[in-house]
Design brief:
The protein is of the alpha/beta class. It folds into three domains: 219 residues, 3-Layer(aba) Sandwich (Rossmann fold); 158 residues, TPP-binding domain (Rossmann fold); 79 residues, 3-Layer(aba) Sandwich (Rossmann fold). It has 15 helices and 17 strands.
Length: 491
């Protein structure tokens, strides 16, 4: 974590140069597109105008907010940006959840809340975004810059003359924190925070003193130079060695399988994973936390691998394989069904976003998942033995009995109707709890979106996330499956 707090008398030079960092950008982010102009070139030479243009530049067109007296001036400048739409939310927690859902669809999201009373309220949503590796810009309207160092007690706080309480809370759940309380280094702090969120694919915290957004300053007198985010690169020697070792390991196997994990998203490696599956012919499964990251219409897809509660016949194929490649797995107590998976380390290749570990043997760092999977696809022999074994033992699921008139609605009948609603023009948002398990049984058509929060599991997340996802992808019909208890949490 990196914390940078601007001092009142600092006189740092503003950074108007191209911001460079190692980051593989999401498809939704256009890092070299000129920023939107307000009132002509340099028309709004203020901190608020600069922040608005930066958000538009990285692909944010909707900002979720709860107005409060510490952020009102900043919100005025965001509203003035014609390419930004300000979406008011009923509370800060929902604003954070909405920004989370938006980031899942667009690659980055943003929310704006007020100091402490709003910042502490949004913490849970930001923590969830951190656990899911989502770039989220959390902006807080902070105290007047003249209040710093005065030992004054402010409203909306817990009554202590210490303005760092909110900051300290955010330090553990964001990858960068910027406290902007003077204009001299505001440009640098804002740009560094945003670029760090994109590079690390994690939330960041930006606090902006409430009296600063509307004050003109020379560092904002021109349209901001567009971000140039250099892509991360694999170590070539490490990549070649990892591919050679993995190919030798898998080509000797009789019935190898592939299993996709949730970190396929942060590695932007879903397409590379499918390319590998197409080339090798292995049976293809997905971890429960990665549903939606792997196309279920793939001809060799065998279902969800979740130990004892896997899709029918999927666990038998995965656990009987003599070699398995897991791409981006997270083995927590949920996904491992209480750490009960019948897997053996000596049979596994574990591919993380920037690291490959082969069985009990060598590990290779500085190897990006996308590069590794693409290169491995060219080195594997075609082997569909595991899929043929699955096809041999597979028995199609039966259909629920038809309900009689006035019979209580059964869950399996309800989800049969939901299944018929799904298409490439829909997306499913699954809430924590029963919806997790019932939605896992849905078969996603090509192009159908799917999102849930399995790592953090915050009840009520899906209500705000549905709003954010729908704003981000208005062309899709979003189907949210939410338990009534979780639904009530957000109101």
């Amino acid at each position: 974590m990196d914390t940078r707090i601007g001092s009142l008398d600092a006189a740092k030079p503003a950074c108007n140069d191209v911001v460079s960092c190692n980051h593989t950008t999401s498809a939704a982010i256009q890092p070299c597109v000129p920023a939107t102009v307000i009132n002509g070139a340099g028309g709004d030479s203020t901190l608020g105008g600069h922040l608005a243009r930066r958000l538009v530049e990285i692909g944010v067109t909707d900002v979720f907010s709860v107005p409060g007296d510490f952020n009102l001036t900043l919100l005025d400048h965001l509203i003035a940006e014609p390419a930004l739409n300000l979406v008011g939310c009923c509370n800060e927690l929902n604003a954070g959840y909405a920004a989370d859902g938006y980031a899942r669809a667009r690659g980055v999201g943003a929310c704006v809340v007020t100091f402490t009373v709003g910042g502490l309220s949004v913490l849970n949503a930001i923590a969830g975004a951190y656990s899911e590796n989502l770039p989220l810009i959390c902006i807080v309207g902070g105290p007047n810059s003249n209040d710093y160092g005065t030992s004054r007690i402010l409203h909306h706080t817990i009554g202590l003359p210490d303005f760092s309480q909110e900051l300290r809370c955010f330090q553990t759940i964001t990858c960068f924190q910027a406290v902007v309380n003077n204009l001299e280094d505001a440009h640098e702090l804002i740009d560094t925070a945003i670029s760090t969120a994109l590079k690390e694919s994690k939330p960041v915290y930006i606090s902006i003193s409430c009296n600063l957004p509307g004050i003109p300053h020379p560092t904002f007198s021109r349209d901001p130079v567009p971000f140039s985010l250099s892509p991360r690169l694999s170590n070539k020697m490490g990549l070649e060695a990892a591919v050679e070792a993995a190919a030798e390991f898998l080509n000797k196997a009789v019935k190898p399988v592939l299993v996709g994990g949730p970190k396929l998203r942060v590695a932007t490696a879903s397409d590379a994973f499918v390319e590998l599956a197409d080339a090798c012919g292995y049976a293809l499964a997905v971890m429960p936390s990665a549903k939606g990251q792997v196309p279920e219409h793939h001809p060799h897809f065998i279902g969800t691998y979740w130990g004892a509660v896997s899709t029918a016949f999927c666990a038998e194929i995965v656990e009987s394989a003599d070699a398995y490649l897991f791409a981006g797995p997270i083995f927590n107590d949920y996904s491992s069904v209480g750490y009960s998976l019948l897997l053996k380390k000596e049979k596994a290749i574990i591919v993380q976003p920037d690291r490959v570990v082969i069985a009990n043997g060598p590990a290779f760092g500085c190897v990006l998942m996308k590069d590794f999977l693409k290169a491995l696809a060219k080195r594997l022999k075609h082997n569909n033995t595991a899929y043929e074994n699955y096809h041999r033992i597979f028995v199609p699921e039966g259909h629920p009995l038809k309900a009689t008139p006035r019979e209580p609605l059964r869950v399996n009948v309800l989800f049969q109707h939901i299944q018929k609603m799904l298409s490439g023009e829909t997306a499913v948002i699954a809430e924590t709890g029963d919806s997790w398990f019932n939605c896992q049984k849905l078969k996603l058509p090509k192009g159908c979106g799917y999102e849930f929060q399995m790592q953090y599991g915050s009840i009520g997340w899906s209500v705000g996330a549905t709003l954010g996802y729908a704003q981000a992808v208005p062309e899709k019909r979003v189907i949210a499956c939410i338990g009534d208890g979780s639904f009530q949490v957000c109101f």
